[in-house]
Amino acid sequence: MGPDQTEPGLPADPVGRRVSCDGERATVLYVGPVPPTAGEKEPGFSVSGQILECAPMWPQLEDLCVEDNNITELQRPDGVLQSLKSLNVSCNPLDQRSVLSLAALPRKEILGGINYNFFFWLGLSSVGSQTSLFPALKNLNLDNNNISEWRVVDELAKLPSLAQFSCSGNPLVSSDGNPKTAMQMLIAKLGQVVLLNRNILRPEDRRGAELDYIKMFGEEWLKAGGASQLSTQFSSQHPRYQRLISKYGAPEEGELKKQEPFALKNQLLRINFVFPDDADRKPIEKKLPASMVVQKVKGLLYRLLKVPAADLKLTYTCNQKVGTEFEIDSDLKTLQFYSIEDGDQVLVRWS
């Protein structure tokens, strides 16, 4: 079949089209002979894998998106996809260990849609040192991954080229339950990141976060041995702390911040509810606990608006990124989970 011909019944240019085959959705990447198989691959072929069979035909491919293709396994791309810079595998039920097969790709700069669990299989390196895996990875998106442990962040800090990182919608909390404190900790732990949650970090932002981090854990640092003989436990929990001490100097006793008990349940957020589809309705300001689940927020709005909770759709905008709406898509998550901060707007719509 010539290059300008297609199978009967196929569109003239099927490449790039979304198709459905036996109930599975896919994107047509190629139509034509695929050695060593006979015949042609038709639209709707199983992406999970036919990818490596087609890869020799894309020696210069830099951007690959296989989102929502029911891919469960990724195989090591030996000799192919060596020009790949960006990979998006969102909404695929991946066996996370198979993601390690991509670690040796020399030019991959952007990785999106990966579940964070795969980093626990990396065996990255010892405390505070960098890993040789994912050497070119600059941009990583781990939004909405239910990350709650700071050791995940400490592992990510070992990636040598990581400069842009997004982890919105993850319940990472500080001991005081304040989202702003948690953001300071993220900045201090990720020393090479210049774009965090899509916000540019200015030099003064980093300096302030790192100094606060030193003071925040200064008392714990002293009890763990300080500069003389620091305990292994403290070093594993705060791998960048000694480096920050070398950068700014040890904290004075009067500067130390005493760690308060976890107070997330007691923290109140000032939230402005606005109604973009109802111009005559005035905004409503409420102070709500950061631990309040969205289901209860909708119950409150039902009492105020007399609109069934099931009909309500919520989004929010934050002070750091004015004009961008973020979806609140789970009734069982807390306001804290969505990183909603004091003074943010929640937009309320209903059908």
Describe this structure in words.
The protein is an alpha/beta fold and about 350 residues long. Among the domains are: about 115-260, Leucine-rich repeat, LRR (right-handed beta-alpha superhelix) (Alpha-Beta Horseshoe); about 265-350, Phosphatidylinositol 3-kinase Catalytic Subunit, Chain A, domain 1 (Ubiquitin-like (UB roll), Roll). It has helices at about 45-55, 150-155, 180-190, 205-215, 220-225, 230-235, 240-250, 295-305, and strands at about 20, 25, 65, 85-90, 110, 140, 165, 195, 200, 270-275, 285-290, 310-315, 325-330, 345-350. The strands form three sheets. It has a seven-stranded mixed sheet, with no helix packed on it. It has a five-stranded mixed sheet with strand order 11-10-14-12-13, with no helix packed on it. Helix 4 packs across helix 7 (about 240-250).
